[in-house]
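Lab notebook, bench 4. We co-purified these components, and the gel suggests they stay together. Before we commit to crystallization screens, I want a quick structural picture of the whole thing.
Request: model the full complex, all chains together.
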Amino acid sequence: MDGQVFVGSRIRQRRIDLGLRQADVAANAEISASYLNLIEHNKRRIGGKLLARLADILGASPDALTLGGDAGVLDGMRTAASRYGRPVEMDRAEDIAARFPGWSALIADQEAQISTLEREVQALSDRMGHDPALADALHDVISSVTAIRATAGILVSGDRVDEDWQQRFHANLHADSQRLTEQSKSLVAYLDQPGQSKDPRATYSVLEAAEQFIAKRADIFLAFDEDPNAQVESIMTSQDVSALSDDVQKILRRRLMQQAADAAKLPFEDFLEAAVACDADPAILADQFHAELPQVFRRLAYLPNDNRLPPRGLAVCDMAGVMTVLKPTLGFRLNRRSDSCPLWPLFSALRQIGQPVRQEVVLPSATAPRLLCFAQAEAMNAKHFDTPLQVESTMLVIADPRPGLAPEVLAGTSCRICPRQDCPSRREPALMHEFL
Amino acid sequence: MGRRVLLIEDEPNIIEAISFILSRDGWTVHTHEDGSTAIDKVRAAPPDMVILDVMLPGRSGFDILRDLRESAETADLPVMMLTARGQSKDRDLAERLGANHFMTKPFSNQDVRDQVRLMMGEG
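Here is the predicted assembly.
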């Protein structure tokens, strides 16, 4: 996503909200007023320490200025445009997003809702067509309805029915209606089972639901330095976690246990200071704490917002490329669906299990920040013979790093909205490519 | 004694209702609930027509119909399929296998009565 384009607008809005003069803010940040003016009008990229300084002056976290509620807005707008079927001024998307953030967010939000609904309809259609348990349940209901209709039809036909038969049919009607009641309840319970939300705006999968919960409770992974098992249990029995479905709770517990193990190896206070000291270099931290790289990636990604550290994102995927963990950050927001760009180090790491991969991702948009990515795929069950290898790739994303730290790779979000027409990894033409 | 209809169905109250309706209409109704022995029942006492449910314990109605059509003695036996699954693929399969009629549950008593009369040449 091209979150960078919104940063200037947000800085400007935040400054105006606080009643601060541009010149004063610029002076505090040790830049010229004209340079701040360019930033505020999205004509200069901003990141790293300058972003941290401005965020500090404006009393906001860098993430609030870079992510806010608008993450993915441009991607959402472009996807919405690609569905429209008529020419759209795609080259004006960034201008519109910067000038009308509310309307832009609305477009992106509606696009996300449509996408979610489409997937839910597809999932329900698959379920109706192929789920044997549902087919059996419906068969039972229809059988009961058939028996009731046939029996009732006999009783109201007007033909004379012997009293013995009448009693028998009445008893049958009673038994069938009771059976139908139970079958209906079972069917409703089945259709309403955990993980199947009726809210069309709700997340599609339990993985996404767990991720959303973690994003709202940013501190959830921090408190693991003493008796982590007890702390996991304490979190899991808290009121807001209890309100989640059983399936989401299972995912959350797994994530908590993993983070607890990471925290045991990488204690919060020591790790934070060490991360600041080495500018969040995972290799140095892994050496210093004798930890595995994926542990360091995860711990770094979920450190609290700190102006001394750059914005950080995280992605974890399995061998099928399905994203099991996704924490976006400035400029970084992959699709959970399987149509992500295959050029990200997250995926290239899968080709060389155990080999650390470091690359600087250059996104298609000229205003997007560069992303320094560290990835490593690890085999989770490599000690078992005759068992399919379970592999997980973990990628840490550092937004807007110092240039020249790693080889560059050109990557994007997905082919549908990527303007790089000649990319050898393109798997489908870009929609609305004449505008992209 | 009227002509004989064999109802192969496993829901007791549906069996009772259909048996009552058809008996009132002058047919002699025999019933059988187990899919795995349904062919034996047909061969032991060949009926004039069969009403055959699709989902039966032991063996599906489609498999039973296939066997009936592959045997010279029962190849032309009138068969009406009953099913709670009204999907077109089930209807197509029933037709391919040689069902004379395919009726979706729930049905009206009048429809059952009229269809049996029709298939027995009395409609």
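Chain B touches chain A through 19 residues (CB under 8 Å). Worth comparing against the SEC data before the next meeting. Chain B has one domain: 4-119.
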